[in-house]
Amino acid sequence: MKKLLLTTLLFAFAIIVFAQDQTTFILVRHAEKANDGTRNPPLNEEGKTRSANLAEMLANQEVTALYSTPFKRTQETLQPIAEMKNLEVQDYDPYAKGEWLATLAKKNPGGTVVISGHSNTIPTLANALLGNETFSQFDESDYSNLIIIVTNEVGKGTLVRLKF
User: Fold this and answer.
1) What confidence score (pLDDT) does residue 69 get?
2) CA-CA distance, 29 to 38, in Å (whole number)?
3) I need a labelling partner for 117 at 20 to 30 A (CA). Which of 60, 73, 88, 98 fits?
4) Cβ contacts of residue 99 below 8 Å, gap of 6+?
5) Please, what's the largest Cα pairwise distance for the chain?
6) Closest of 66, 49, 38 to residue 143, by C-alpha
7) Regarding beta strands 65-68 and 112-117, do their DSSP bridges make them parallel or antiparallel, or are they unpaired?
8) pLDDT > 90: what percent of the chain?
9) φ, ψ (nearest 5 deg) of residue 57
10) How high is the mean pLDDT of the chain?
């Protein structure tokens, strides 16, 4: 519980310090998935707990948009936030980058956009927002990365990286 409280406080501090009229992007890899033998598995119990913790962390944050790839695990990762904030999880192309991110920034000035993706797509989006190759593909067993990037121009973002 102390870890969640500390992470939430750090998250809130990052948003307050950096985010005036800039767009805040919260990038998260989907939570732990079930091993059901399919190409589109849902979250397992650990993943459901992680997604609920993410929603709890964002309870006091004004979230303006939610995006996930069209897979159960990414959509389910954001579902608790969607229910809490009365928002719809919108699909996006997992290989979208610069132009799509610029459109999101323009549509959500001063807002917070949460994007759920995969071990290979979230680092790519983060790198596009930052304008450099900070991240490489996440390890398949790592579900704990929470990347917060605040920017008003794609390619010139400010990074806060947390583990949750």
Assistant:
1) 97
2) 19
3) 60
4) none
5) 45
6) 49
7) parallel
8) 83
9) -60, -35
10) 91
